[in-house]
Amino acid sequence: MAAQPTTKPAAAAGTVRIGDLTVNRMGFGAMRLTGPGVIGPPDDAEGALGILRRAVELGVNFIDTADSYGPEVNERQIAEALHPYPEGLVIATKGGLLHERRGEWRQDGRPETLRAACESSLERLRLERIDLYQLHSVDPTVPIEESVGALAELQREGKIRHIGLSNVDTRQLAQARRVAPVVSVQNRYSVADRPWEGMVDACEREGIAFLPWFPLGFGELARSRGHLAELGANRGATAAQIAIAWLLRRSPVMLPIPGSSTLTHLEENVAAAGIELSDTEFAELSGSAAAAL
User: Fold this and answer.
1) Spatial CB neighbours of 119, under 8 Å, sequence gap ≥ 6
2) What is residue 5's predicted lDDT score, i.e. its pLDDT?
3) Which of 48, 107, 135, 221 could make an SS bond with 243 (beta carbons 3.0 to 4.6 A apart)?
4) d(CA 293, CA 290)
5) Which candidate in 69, 85, 133, 189 is catalytic?
6) List of domains in the chain
7) Which tens digits make up the pLDDT trace of 125-168?
8) pTM, whole model, 2 decimals?
9) Does residue 69 have an active-site annotation?
10) Angle between the 170-177 and 197-206 helix axes, to the nearest 10 degrees?
């Protein structure tokens, strides 16, 4: 019998620190396991649970979710599929963005809202403490210091291990860090969509993990027929895998969290952790976001 590999695919890109936690640098975003428009359960409920279990089998030990995905559905799926959680698995969730109707997202960063959201997430995830709790979006009607202050209070109570931010700029990050330590930032970012280049650089300087959401765009990069696809063909890879490999090369604090609603795409995405772009390949893709498509 041939020897089995000792390294799981998600570990091939190395690790990243999230505060005092260390996770493989290939995570999984669970949002796509909910129903259409991120509302309600999926048609194939058992299939969604199987995808979560398979991600962990592949070595994924960082899973990102939010109370607004479903809403509440996604957190329940994670607990149903994986609890009791294997040692070293980090579940990151978010609060402060309400999603009650398809296509409608509304910020609510009031301290009382965040407290209730966190305590409800603890119950759904069957946890006593959430390893990474992220402010999902800054509420323009609430100073960010008040929102983060509420998370800092929950942290002191032992309900949150680490605090992260999502959808923030560098000014807001600085404001938040005056209130509490921030270990991660989650903003929209991909090889073809780079509005937060400065934030990636700031996170790298400060040792803060950067979680790019929509790392494959809205799926456009996976369907690329341009340079991504050409480079993938030359490497025996898919366009999506090359797009993920570019993110991994972009910064050592980058923690991609591509989502998937099929086992095939999950396995393809995780396999991207083993692709190392050359200097020339990285430079070509970096030269123009439009050219990547």
Assistant:
1) 159
2) 47
3) 221
4) 6
5) 69
6) 15-218+253-261 (3.20.20.100)
7) 999 999 999 999 999 999 999 999 999 999 999 999 999 999 99
8) 0.94
9) yes
10) 30
